[in-house]
User: What shape does this take?
Amino acid sequence: MKIILTESQYRQLTEENLKDFLFKFWDNQKEDGEQPSLDDIIYQLVGHSRGSAYDNSYIRPIWYEYNGGYQKVLQQVKDEILHGEFQIIGPSYNLDMIVFVRDMHTYGDDFNFGGEVNLDCVLVGGTVDGFIYDGDEQIQVPNMDIFDQWSELEYDTHDFEQFLEDETDMYFDKLLEKYGVPIHTDLMIK
Assistant: This one.
């Protein structure tokens, strides 16, 4: 979607009429057959970035209101993912893993206007191109069981755990971006 604003229209885009502008923007997306979203063009127009204080204080509360309120949006997220298993195929190291979403909770400054959604996930299983040590020699093992790779690393698991959690974060960010809620995952590996 392309939006053209004159300079005077841009200056008039204040907090007072931001809500009207955004509601019209999202209504136009619907009319064009698109799913309304927190499109990057919105952030370019207001001159603030996604996740900024301005975004969290002004844009997201309007987004939640447009979608029936923060609690309704949270319920939609919960209905889609809570107690579900998800296959995450990552672009690096031939990653293919299954995670289970065990719990979901929110935290932030204002419960009514939103905060970050935290997903508690458990690694169920999967494979990754890993490696083992044979003496001083490192041997690459394609499609190694994730738990075997984790065990092989013994005390040096932090980077591997961070890699798996980052991949999980990226997966759920993409899957749930239509809800416009900031997502963070905690991944338990055992």
The longest strand covers residues 114-134. The chain has seven helices and five strands. Residues 99 and 123 are 5 Å apart (CA to CA).
